Amino acid sequence: MKKSSLLISLLLILSLSISGCGGDDSSKIKIGVIAELTGDIPAVGTSCKNAAEMAVQEVNDAGGIQLGEKKYQVKLIIEDNAGKAEQSASSAQKLITQQKVTAIVGPNASRYALPAAEIAETSKTVLITPWSTAPKATLDSKTNVSKKYVFRACFIDPFQGGVLAKFTLDNLKLKKAAVLYDVASEYNKGIAEIFKDVYEKNGGKVVAFETYTTNDKDFSSQLTKIKKAAPDVIFLPNYYSEVPLQIQQSKRLGITVPFIGSDSWGSEELVKLCGKDCNDYYFSTHYAADSASDTTKKFIANYKAKYGTTPDDVAALTYDSFGLLWQALKTAGKNDRQAVRDALAKIPQYEGVTGNMQFKEGSGDPVKSAVILKIKDGKFTWFANAKP
Amino acid sequence: MAYIFQQALNALQLGSIYALIALGYTMVYGILTMINFAHGDLFMVGAFFCFLLAVYFHLSFVPTLLLSMLGVACLGVIIERLAYKPLRNAPRVSAIITALGVGLFLENFTLALSPYPKHIPQLLENTTWAIGALSISSLQILIIVLSLVLMLILDFVVQRTKAGMAMRAISWDKTIVPLMGVPVNKIISLTFAIGTGLGGAAGVMYGLAYPVIDPYMGIMVGWKAFICAVVGGIGNIRGAMIGGFILGGVEILVAAFLPSTYRDVVAFTLLLILLIVRPYGILGKPQPQKV
Asked: What is the ipTM of this complex?
């Protein structure tokens, strides 16, 4: 008797809480965000979350998004993927099936974006990754044609790797390069291989091509090997939490040549962790905060006022991802996954805070330019532009 | 030639840190026949203590090292009292699962405080000497010498002092020794304090050598140190030291002469073969003399 009454009351509470959740959500558009809030690159996740909250707040403060006759408020649901591939996939699953979001923004790093993108594609839900530059993120894993539901706001690695290789050869005039990269991470591996390919095709020589695996802290063996090969420049396409260790250990081993990096360097955390050791090196990224257009300046000022830091590339790209999403929602005119996807695929170009993006028919990858930044006294300063 | 010397130095540096951590595993196993899987995370806590003391209290190297060791040792004793002591007569699996739980707790507790990787400031002036093509940094020398000194002190304590004798006695027989008037609980606490304190020292030195620390740094290093302890013969102190230097050496040398992608594959295959040939580890015996 006692047991059954307990069970019934439990069930009642459960049903109450379920119907409680249902509430007035029909008048809201739900957007999911998957970000790397904990794990090995928390600065990336935090920037993404900040920019997402800012983008949503701006829309809600303006009364919401006009769909048909009614204005809808936007509800943001943020999931932490803890810097794990499997948790990225389960977060995507949860957002799609339980929270029933209209679209997902994130994850950012390619190794987390890939599994989440697979889920989004099979569940026919739009996923925009702000920062994943690995080509595979928007390509079908079996047929290698473009995925239908996955888009991104950034350029892709074949472009970035080529820009860096040409920059090293033409601007820095350094003909012998060494590469040290994380072989267990999609992004690092992809860009390292493209860099090598383009660099050697254009007359350079890669004298050492060394690897390590994620979470390694000791690179002394690989760096000693690189030192022996005597390169003119070392390319480190690795995340901001590992680059400082690699540069400091190189200096301790008596390596004095310059270093170059890719967009994974572009977090202010890099300078914090590096101290003076990273000064005067170059890296490619998505936008330069110090040479911005008017829309970008407004975004930077708002972000600074809200969070007290200059937005990094992840923040800017997340903001652009939301911009794309708002435009698609408005064109679609209804809160429906398929309609949003169709509208998003038809956007020919978009003027975002990271510059002009052009989308090719049937592809989720925008064509846009890159910038080369130089680290000067601990600050990222604009150095050169690279057009697509 | 300079290349080989340089790699040997790299191996010594890595090996001495592995050895210091491996000592903690082996001491606790010796006295309780229990594998303290939280040890890698205690090592991480040591590095975070170092960060806190250096950044917020502006202490110099020596007090930072001593206070971090003390802090981690206290934490180790508390963990033993709260989490492991009630399970001393429980099945061994329960104790191991508890240890894994404690490790997860330490990781996530640190993570909850702040998920960002931290930068440990330079506590010591670092000079690099270039001898021909060989470059030696003062930090490298410090880590190697300090680890060796700590290991020698430990060896002396265990082999030559009364407390050390009591440790060895308890690991020999847990039922008879208390009858002889040996304070078992005190000695177990002391063992935990020394083992985890050495882990804390390793955390500080690791933090100096690789100054970007994060809450997950203890996992992989902890596993590797555990392997060192097993290779050396778990329960045997000198074995743990040898195991540490072997793993450090193999890791560095594989990456030095083969493509670095093969490092872990070759390193662990070699260790597996070693264990097939000598299942009790290098210095372990079927009935080893334990600490």
From this structure: 0.85
